[in-house]
Specification:
By secondary structure, the protein is α+β, with helices and mostly antiparallel strands. The chain contains three helices and five strands. It has one domain: Alpha-Beta Plaits, CATH 3.30.70.
Length: about 100
């Protein structure tokens, strides 16, 4: 299994409450597809409010779907120019502990 992690970086004018709302919607979507228990067990993310960065583990099938849903909701809510996504092969040292759902 590849340790695929996405790092989302948000511009200064983005309200982090909108980022959190997009994550909640993405989690609801993942739960609808995989169930609450599996979503809870197979996903992890961490929002660093100070650095304006969210790190999402996409190394599981559920995590991959969560990342796709989250990215889609962000693009709709914020627009494609208000955030960046970086694909990391391994999690950055500072990204742990992930917040569990």
């Amino acid at each position: 299994m590849v340790n695929l992690v996405y790092r989302y970086l948000f511009d200064a004018d983005v309200a982090l409450e909108e980022v959190e709302a997009a994550m909640v919607l993405a989690l609801f979507g993942a739960e609808s597809l995989y169930g609450a228990s599996r979503t809870r067990l197979e996903t992890a993310q961490h929002l660093d409010r100070e650095k304006r960065v969210l790190v999402l583990d996409a190394s599981t099938p559920v995590g991959s779907v969560l990342a796709k849903l989250f990215t889609g909701f962000l693009m709709r809510e914020l627009g494609p120019d208000d955030f960046r996504v970086e694909r990391l092969a391994t999690p950055p040292v500072n990204s742990f502990p992930f917040e569990r759902n």
